[in-house]
Amino acid sequence: MIQFSGVSVVYPGGTHALSDIDLEIADGQFVVVVGLSGAGKSTLVRTINGLVPLTSGSLEVGGRRVDGASRRQLRALRADIGMIFQSFNLVKRTSVLNNVLMGRLHSTPTWRSLLGLYKRSDKELAFQALERVEVVEKAYVRASNLSGGQQQRVSIARALAQEPQVMLADEPVASLDPPTANVVMRDLQRINRELGITTIVNLHFLDLAKRYGDRIIGMREGRVVFDGTGEEADEKV
Ligand code: ADP
Ligand code: ADP
């Protein structure tokens, strides 16, 4: 479970990005967070892996306290959380397989990874992850030679290779055309269903949110202004 209790985040410049958020997200849930640019979606997601510190309140992820965690505890937390970004964040010069293996870095000593000495089990996990998002035939292709949709699926595979408990996706389809956006959302949904990974996806558009979210959280100016199912969203938003 992910539990926000009275969470506020004020950035150094004085922006109140989150104001008094109370939320409980059950294990295995597929949650979509919607809201305009600046509503606080990225900040909400980044508090979960400790990238943005809380100004006040408390936050627990899988029974682990995020606020007040030591650097070592944060490293352990991040190893269990897969992150997906709008801009894919792949290393473009290297192969798809190497990119996915980077998901294993949390559990591979640095010197081994620098020498490319991954364990066989790491490679097996990487290939399984690529199969799951149906880009396994691209394993030895340079990441830069893939389409946007394929790159995003590789970044999902990289997150999967971590064997995460939680998957966070910050505007994962914002730079994709609508058909490709649907493919990527379907992949995220299928992975959630098959593996039970708690998934939180930030989106701009309510139509995609309604199509894929079990639960939709609407944000405005750092506050939760809606929390319910897609049908309820139809009536209220
Ligand atoms: P969204 O993801 O919904 O676009 P954000 O969480 O990125 O919203 O931003 C919420 C508010 O916090 C915005 O006003 C934004 O400009 C501000 N903000 C985001 N990141 C920072 C930062 N690192 N420093 C200062 N202000 C920030
Ligand atoms: P996105 O919302 O797509 O993540 P942004 O352009 O809002 O991208 O933010 C890019 C980076 O700039 C992020 O690291 C964010 O935290 C930071 N940022 C956003 N708004 C501000 C702000 N007002 N002041 C300082 N940093 C900000």
TrEMBL record:
CDD domains: ABC_PhnC_transporter. Pfam families: ABC_tran. One of its GO terms (molecular function) is ABC-type phosphonate transporter activity. Transmembrane segments: none annotated. SMART domains: AAA. Keywords: ATP-binding, Cell membrane, Membrane, Nucleotide-binding, Translocase, Transport. GO terms for cellular component: membrane. Gene3D superfamilies: P-loop containing nucleotide triphosphate hydrolases (3.40.50.300). Residues 2-237 form the ABC transporter domain. The keyword Transcription regulation does not apply. It comes from the Bacteria. This is Phosphonate ABC transporter ATP-binding protein. The gene is phnC.
